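Worked problem 6 (solution included).
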Amino acid sequence: MNPNRSVDGQPASAPSGAARVVAIDGPAGSGKSTVARTVAGRLGMAHLDTGAMYRGVAFAALEAGIDLGDGDALDALAERVDMAFDGSRLLVDGADATEAIRGQAVSTAVSPVATNAGVREVMVQRQREWAADHDGGVIEGRDIGTAVFPDAPVKVFLTATPEERARRRSDETDDVDLETLAAQIAERDERDANRAVNPMRPADDGVVIDTTDLNLDQVVDAVIALVPWVGEDRKSRPPAEPEPAADTVAEGTAPSLPRVFVRPAQPVVDAPALGIGARLGYRAISGTSRALAKVAYRSEIMGKERLPRTGPYILAPSHRSGLDFLLAAMVTRRRVRWMAKESLWTYPALGSFVDVMGGFQVNRGTADRRSLRVAEAVLADGQPLVVFPEGTRRNGAVVEGLFDGAAWLASRQRVPLVPVGIAGTEEAMSTGTRLPRPGKIVIWIGEPLWPDVPRAGRVPRREVTAFSDRLLPELQDAFDRANAHRGLTTLG
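Solution. The predicted structure is:
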């Protein structure tokens, strides 16, 4: 297809504006539109909402009575429809469709339109032409950094928890309840992530920002910090009026710049698949373990608010007992994965149990490259991972002799390490003990530590070693605090 008209209805021109594109991707309710408009205003750049374009085609299809299952008719419509942005208004064939495209009818119709390969081909071409006409711009959508502008210098993927995204959408509409919105968002996510043409996903070299607990200023500052040409020619561009922040920082204080997950290149293996049986088994076992720990060990978990709510991270616990892997998994309701010594699979029943609990084999004492690749894949898949930096069970109150595996994985995948002190397990089930004894167990979660490494490319070995050196006192502090809260200053 060769569409002969751009987004604004003008003759097509060669798409050459990718050099100054800020690509903002993400699912519904992640904050794309508000962030993109505000970033564009702050940078004095043009803004394009590509989702509105697909909604515009859906609106035109409904107005024309076109069957949404008729791909050829949708293709022809996309070719001929005239769309123009007039400030914040969208004109479709001259009619103001700004409010209509956000209504329930268009929201229901837009998915079959947006997943149509012919429609996407036409819209992508128009989006590239728009960027060429505007010397780049801040462009938002669901595949901007992966398909429309894969060479864009700034690629951001915004996300948030499903609950938060549904809440945000409920604030924008009065005719749909929160539960229905959550179901619609989950269904749309599933379709977008699995569609055959340009599925929604972060670009391999993009930056993932979880907006769940961030205000608008924080997200905008994080995006602008990635823009290489900031300050280069701002004086020559008249600044647009920025969107007001819904939740701004206190007057007189500088907005804090959040740490964000910088998505590295994809690992060479896939994360181990989890069947429905394993997921249900994990939920049952972890729930039972929490209940038993409360009764038998009067367990307490301190600092759960310091855990990242979403995204990948590495739990780095102290290790004094065979109970530690179950206790480490208790700190979060999310399913965690963990490296386990290969000898556990010597016994089939035990190996099956470890499989259900998210373990995968590692050959301790060697540089087990396969297990490290699996661990990378787990993190790249967005899952939390447990790695015991001491390598094996130790005795006593002193944390020492850390291996570099945890720091290496965190540095390679650009994710935080979370030190976790577990006190009381040595008395409950020390090395050589067959059955656990009752007592008190305290788990202390420390502040997440981010790797100080380049955003992309090779991680210097010295930086990995330095990261392990940073982890050591923080893990010791978490272990000391767990022991102190348990009522002990040392373990003997």
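Discussion: The first helix runs from residue 32 to 43.
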